[in-house]
């Protein structure tokens, strides 16, 4: 076998390795029921859940807790996923600043007991200047 | 009055630019054909003249378009959607330029603009290559100008491009105002996103787009080489441009990174955001291409690879454009453009060049030379080739992950639902590969240089021993001294140190001879320094603001696990209340604003902000550094979105410094955006930002009034504080009131005791013409408002009314980033290296070109055509 062929094979092997690992690392979009099932079966993988905030008829956000004067690193709210399943979400960092205005929230994390512990929150806020178009912002609970 | 003329002119010029680009493509194509088929000189020259003329007309039209758009923005013609959306009257002039490329159309225009400049330079620096290269150039221009064409083909209702010259009325025809006044012109525009009002945002986009634009040059030369069967000759004129392009694109990316570090609050310069990634991948491939081009003259495999990589760079730039502008990223990115309905057009653009270039390459593949014998493992070519391959693998890995949203879309097109999301922990995901790739790449830079300059061969490997030994000793010292324990960090550190030593020793040798040749070694040292800086500043970053105030009220078990260690990285600071953080004593002292014509921030309490305006009224004389800028009552211009939180840091040594992290009220970004302030030290940066504030523009919400009737020296409780009425005295000085004769004024002196501090509040009580005026006093630290309500002469008692509110606080996070300056130093070294390399290769090209010209003159009979061509 020529050197160049061996070389080519090695490259192909690495490329396949990259693709396989990427597929393994890629997260998925799921709903809360699936997230619960995954947690129950001991699957600790980080997942994405898309949903909206729980609001009353007047548009006020319900069940949202953030008390920076007591603990600036604890924020919780209730998210309703696309199948109308509501779950408590806990985000162990500061409340994202534009959170109240967000129309759609993507949480990344996993279910732990009854609550979803989010490591990262992505928000889609209605942009004032672009009707019907949403802008995304991103927040991460950083770990030391 | 609506200024129709300028918009119509702009639109017309876009169409002219589009048409002339197509004409120029055809004309240059014909010129190329004429020169290869050796037709008579007459035909060739006439085609060439025509091609040049159309390109110059195209150029003039592009300048006209740029001028028209700038005229509209600069003169505040808010009847135009682009000006209305992206600029405003109050925008400082410097940033008016940035509003030009704030939106998609403008940024395409910027790209088009750079392309004509580059095309112009190429026409006058190349002789034989002009026609084929410019054919590709003009074709690209045709595609780019079509993006801003804004023409709807009647009948099939097909929209081609999106023009920046639309009137507001045309973009938003449903606004009710048009019914009342069809000639309505907004008084002011929306302004530039305040986040982008930063000097880096004035130079970062043009640099980045120049980087993108310049990748077309090596691509065009490669295409021309294939077309004219000059499979080797294209390298020499293309190489200096590849180097220049790599430098500019690299600098553009780094400027963006630096802007993000200074302005955004994710605490870093790199976020693995798809937009960042898709500009970084072409750069990696371009750098790989530069390396294979250098050895292409000696090695046929490298030549073939140079073709592939040069084409790949350009196609990846197009792919990047497609990703960021088609809306395909959707959820995945923070800063992609919104979809303008151009996705189809962008896809056609991408696929055209993909198919044409790969098609041409395959068509000519058989003609490319092959190596007669195997390349030796001990040859320089072998090592450089391995390095280039690793760069490509690194790029491939980033691309494979970044394209996840694209896989979803492709699956959707085939009717399946993939639901794939980007990895939850992107940093870990990318590092897992990139750290090892770059450790190997940086080692290869050292080895490659030794093989290249020292002619290290099979029996001369010992030349490498000395640098290796030296590198190991230095790394061991750093590892011990800095306490690096993780094997991954030890690996990249040792690799980088080896690269510095190896390239450094080569550099010393070269400098003895000809410094012109030192570009490569210097660039490599720069990259190695950057890697060391990146490793330390991110792997050893340390959160300083660990919350240890004891306020943490444990809720349920899940949050108290790990000894509450997790996620306590933000601390709450109350106004004027010192708090310990790490080795520092922190006090939040004030909120400040940014006046436009004073070189420092001033206290917000000095002025009254005018709502919805960019001006404020001075409440007192504004004196900064003994210079009076404004008198009380003057109006001053400020940056209305920006508030700076003055935080005092007291070091154990007693040294005090202030940081001013910024909070921006920015409706475009959904509300409040905070930016850090950075204390820069030689060995580390202290990076501080506020993650939460009470809205600085909101009025406080006061509780219900509570009345206290007390005697002198009585103690009472307000808002859980102990208060003592010390005295009531006569006063002649009541703030905000001119006391006249016959007026009587008294003020109460009330002491309020907090844990560590004592405050004195002095509400006053004024009698004027038998009318009572009560001047309340507000204390922000305590969240209290006291009003002197009543004096009862009979009982000698005094009544005060008290309201309370939420005390002002900020939530702050502070991070230390060690050795980040090595990263910036490395960047500088990298740029210097690239410049030297570019100059050297450009000189090579000029020499060759002039030699060819001379040779042609000496043999006039043989090939007359190439003299003129």
From TrEMBL, chain A:
Name of a matching Pfam family: CcmE
Gene3D superfamilies: Nucleic acid-binding proteins
Biological process annotations from GO: cytochrome complex assembly; protein-heme linkage
GO-annotated cellular components: plasma membrane
Keyword Ligase carried by entry: no
Compartment list: Membrane
Molecular function GO terms recorded: heme binding
Domain of life from the UniProt record: Bacteria
The keyword Membrane is annotated on this UniProt entry: yes
Keywords: Cytochrome c-type biogenesis, Heme, Iron, Membrane, Metal-binding
Name of the protein this chain belongs to: Cytochrome c-type biogenesis protein CcmE
Originating organism: Dyadobacter jejuensis
From TrEMBL, chain B:
One cellular component term from this protein's GO annotations in UniProt: membrane
Pfam families, alphabetized: CcmF_C (PF16327), Cytochrom_C_asm (PF01578)
Domain Cytochrome c assembly protein, chain residue ranges per copy: 102-326
Source domain of life: Bacteria
UniProt keywords, alphabetically: Cytochrome c-type biogenesis, Membrane, Transmembrane, Transmembrane helix
InterPro entries hit by this protein: CcmF_C, Cyt_c_assembly, Cyt_c_biogenesis
Gene Ontology biological process terms from the UniProt entry: cytochrome complex assembly
Segments passing through the bilayer: 12-29, 50-73, 108-124, 136-156, 208-228, 240-260, 280-296, 303-322, 342-362, 382-400, 433-452, 464-481, 487-508, 520-540, 819-839
Upper lineage: Bacteria, Pseudomonadati, Bacteroidota, Cytophagia, Cytophagales
Protein's name according to its UniProt entry: Cytochrome c-type biogenesis protein CcmF
Family label: Belongs to the CcmF/CycK/Ccl1/NrfE/CcsA family.
Keyword Chloroplast annotated: no
Cytochrome c-type biogenesis protein CcmF C-terminal domain ranges (all copies): 351-542
GO molecular function, one term: heme binding
Organism listed in the record: Dyadobacter jejuensis
């Amino acid at each position: 076998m020529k050197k160049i062929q061996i070389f080519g094979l090695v490259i192909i092997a690495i490329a396949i390795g990259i693709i396989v690992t990427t597929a393994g690392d890629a997260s998925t979009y799921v709903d809360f029921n699936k997230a619960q099932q995954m947690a129950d079966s001991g699957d600790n993988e980080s997942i994405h859940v898309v949903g909206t905030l729980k609001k009353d008829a007047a548009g006020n956000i319900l069940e949202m807790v953030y008390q920076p004067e007591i603990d600036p690193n604890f924020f919780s709210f209730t998210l309703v996923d696309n199948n109308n399943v509501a779950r408590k979400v806990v985000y162990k960092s500061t409340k994202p600043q534009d959170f109240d205005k967000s129309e759609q929230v993507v949480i990344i994390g996993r279910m732990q007991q009854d609550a979803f512990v989010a490591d990262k929150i992505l928000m889609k806020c209605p942009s004032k200047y672009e009707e019907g178009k949403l802008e995304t912002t991103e927040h991460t609970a950083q770990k030391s | 009055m609506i200024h129709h003329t300028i918009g119509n002119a702009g639109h017309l010029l876009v169409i002219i630019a589009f048409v002339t680009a197509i004409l120029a493509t055809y004309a240059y194509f014909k010129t190329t054909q004429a020169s290869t088929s050796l037709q008579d000189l007459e035909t060739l020259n006439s085609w060439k003249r025509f091609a040049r003329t159309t390109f110059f007309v195209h150029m003039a039209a592009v300048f006209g378009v740029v001028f028209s758009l700038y005229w509209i923005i600069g003169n505040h013609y808010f009847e135009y959607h682009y000006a209305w959306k992206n600029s405003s009257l109050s925008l400082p002039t410097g940033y008016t330029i940035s509003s030009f490329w704030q939106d998609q159309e403008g940024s395409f225009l910027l790209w088009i603009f750079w392309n004509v400049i580059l095309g112009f330079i190429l026409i006058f620096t190349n002789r034989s290559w002009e026609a084929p290269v410019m054919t590709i150039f003009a074709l690209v221009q045709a595609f780019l100008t079509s993006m801003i064409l804004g023409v709807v083909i009647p009948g099939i209702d097909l929209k081609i491009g999106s023009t920046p010259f639309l009137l507001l009325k045309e973009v938003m025809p449903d606004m009710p105002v048009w019914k009342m006044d069809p000639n309505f012109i907004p008084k002011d525009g929306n302004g530039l996103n305040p986040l982008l009002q930063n000097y880096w945002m004035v130079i970062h986009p043009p640099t980045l787009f120049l980087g993108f634009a310049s990748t077309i040059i090596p691509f065009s030369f490669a295409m021309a080489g294939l077309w004219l069967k000059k499979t080797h000759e294209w390298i020499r004129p293309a190489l200096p441009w590849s180097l220049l392009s790599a430098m500019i694109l690299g600098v553009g990316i780094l400027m963006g990174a630096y802007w993000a570090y200074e302005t955004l609050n994710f605490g870093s310069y790199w976020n693995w955001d798809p937009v960042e990634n898709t500009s970084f991948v072409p750069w990696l491939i371009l750098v790989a291409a530069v390396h294979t081009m250098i050895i292409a003259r000696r090695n046929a495999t490298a030549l073939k690879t140079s073709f592939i990589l040069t084409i790949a760079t350009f196609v990846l730039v197009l792919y990047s454009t497609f990703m960021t502008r088609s809306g395909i990223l959707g959820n995945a990115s923070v800063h992609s453009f919104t979809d303008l309905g151009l996705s189809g057009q962008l896809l056609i653009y991408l696929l055209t060049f993909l198919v044409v270039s790969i098609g041409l390459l395959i068509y000519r593949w058989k003609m490319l030379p092959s190596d007669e014998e195997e390349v030796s493992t001990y040859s320089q070519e072998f090592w450089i080739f391995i390095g280039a391959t690793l760069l490509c693998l690194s790029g491939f890995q980033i691309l494979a992950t970044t394209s996840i949203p694209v896989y979803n879309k492709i699956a959707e097109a085939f009717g399946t639902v993939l639901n794939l999301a980007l990895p939850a922990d992107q940093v870990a995901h990318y590092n897992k590969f990139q750290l090892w790739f770059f450790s190997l790449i940086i080692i290869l830079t050292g080895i490659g240089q030794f093989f290249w300059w020292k002619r290290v061969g099979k029996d001369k490997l010992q030349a490498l021993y000395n640098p290796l030994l030296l590198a190991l000793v230095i790394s061991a010292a750093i590892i011990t001294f800095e306490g690096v324990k993780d094997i991954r960090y030890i690996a990249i550190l040792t690799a980088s140190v080896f690269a510095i030593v190896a390239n450094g020793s080569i550099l010393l040798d070269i400098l003895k001879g000809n410094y012109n040749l030192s570009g490569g070694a210097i660039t490599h040292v720069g990259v190695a320094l950057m890697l060391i800086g990146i490793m330390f500043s991110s792997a050893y970053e340390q959160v300083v603001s660990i919350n240890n105030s004891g306020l943490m009220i444990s809720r349920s078990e899940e949050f108290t696990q790990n000894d509450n260690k997790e996620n306590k990285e933000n601390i709450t600071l109350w106004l004027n209340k010192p708090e310990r953080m790490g080795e520092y004593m922190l006090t939040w002292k004030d909120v400040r604003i940014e006046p436009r014509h004073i070189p420092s921030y001033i206290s917000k309490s000095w002025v009254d902000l005018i709502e919805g305006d960019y001006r404020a009224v001075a409440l007192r004389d504004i004196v900064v550094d003994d210079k009076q800028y404004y008198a009380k009552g003057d109006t001053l211009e400020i940056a209305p979105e920006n508030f700076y939180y003055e935080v005092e840091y007291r070091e154990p040594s007693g040294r005090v410094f202030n940081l001013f992290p910024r909070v921006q009220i920015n409706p475009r970004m959904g509300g409040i955006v905070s930016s850090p302030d950075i204390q820069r030290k030689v060995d580390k940066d202290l990076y501080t930002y506020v993650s939460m504030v009470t809205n600085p523009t909101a009025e406080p919400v006061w509780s219900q009034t509570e009345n206290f009737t007390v005697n002198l020296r009585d103690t009472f409780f307000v808002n859980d504080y102990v208060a003592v009425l010390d005295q009531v005295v006569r006063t002649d000085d009541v703030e905000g009131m001119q006391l006249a004769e016959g007026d009587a004024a008294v003020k109460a002196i009330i002491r309020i005791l907090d844990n560590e501090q004592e405050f004195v509040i002095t509400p006053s009580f004024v009698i004027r013409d038998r009318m009572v005026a009560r001047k309340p006093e507000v204390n922000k630290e305590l969240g209290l408002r006291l009003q002197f309500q009543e004096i009862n002469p009979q009982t000698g008692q005094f009544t005060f009314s008290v309201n309370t509110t939420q005390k002002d606080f900020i939530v702050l996070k502070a991070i230390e980033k060690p050795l980040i300056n090595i990263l910036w130093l490395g960047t500088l070294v990298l740029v210097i290296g690239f410049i030297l390399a570019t100059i050297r290769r450009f000189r090579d090209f000029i020499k060759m070109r002039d030699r060819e010209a001379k040779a042609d003159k000496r043999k006039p009979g043989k090939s007359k055509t190439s003299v003129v061509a």
